[in-house]
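quick one: uracil bound model?
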Amino acid sequence: MRMTDIIEKKRDRLPLNKNEIKFFVSGVTDGSIPDYQISALLMAILLNGMNREETLMLTNEMAKSGDMLDLSALPHTADKHSTGGVGDKTTLIAAPAAAAMGCTVAKMSGRGLGFTGGTVDKLESITGYNTAVTTEVFMRTARREGICLVGQSGNFAPADKRLYAIRDVTATVNSIPLIASSIMSKKLAAGAETIVLDVKFGSGAFMKTAADAVRLAEEMVSIGRGVGRKTAAVITDMDSPLGRAVGNALEVKEAVSVLKGRGPDDLKELSVLLAAHMYKLSFGASEKESLEKANRVISDGSAFTKLKNAAAAMGGDAGLLTGEREFPAAGGSKEIYAAESGYITSLDSETVGKASGMTGAGRETLKDEIDYSAGILLDKKYGDRVEKGERLATLYGSPERLEDAAAALSSAYSYGSEKPPEKPLVYKIIS
Ligand code: URA
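yep, here:
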């Protein structure tokens, strides 16, 4: 088989067969296909698309290109995945809630990059938390606690690692079959029988429109079901940050406040919905029962106990979660104020994410060190009424970083004299 023939076929809008996709993925993995031929095929896929069957075959081959975790010895394994956002700490709430309902949540998460946050960085803001454990420890903890939250270790979907790096520099990221196969190959390799996807759209997301998010979600659900995993997706708005905290320790504290029955409504609504769908698919329960149960494990404190145990099992200081001890304080803080009176007609997520990164809460390159205490607490969000001079938000971090970050955050706010329309957080559920 020759790579040039495969490129030619996709260039001419013909579907690729299983052997061709296998040849391509194995050549990506073992390095025998050079970057320029991979780039050419990726661009042909971006321009001419792939049908469902091709996307499923591509995902399967990418999943099989490295380690595949076998979680079959654990009961009711359930995973969730967010396509990335700003202030998205739902894993810290939905995962322990699902575990408290009887799911086993053995979950490998990622780090933040660019303007989006990542669960691993949030977990590492809990002093002592070790996110890099062996598969044995991971499995043992998941069995004992019903929950284990760590970073990705081992060699999962190496074909995706190489393809993603090439896509990043060849303007071929934004293709629904390529994004769907990239995300789902890693989810399939991670082994859970139930997968709940949170596909985000808006300024702080990969998909800018709800219609594109629905297309991506449908593709991913179809892949999951195509390989026998129970899969559902919620499509949610990421035009505004989720909750009020952006930045690692600040987000952990906000997640804890939801698990203790307080916290922002939008964050609670989405976290409960995700946990409920993890349970619903795992146990075949009704939507109503699942939502009731998810709310109950939060109000009776059992979801919080799961998070505490999950942190302690990984060496994390659970006293930071119970309030016995305080998270390390930030080096400084700075408030920003409303430039005019009126309504907040937009709070641009991407800009908020960038401003949070500037406080030290994110990295520009994977090697940068994170300041876990840095970030933003938002007082005012989309739709809120403000008076000129009223506080909009507080930034935390090293004082020398806060001037620029504050200017960036101020630019995320737009004002108007009319109250803007309410926007539902959950646009659609594919279940
Ligand atoms: N996240 C991934 O893992 N892959 C993509 O292609 C896009 C987002």
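Residues 83, 164, 173, 178-179, 182-183, 206 surround uracil (CB under 6 Å).
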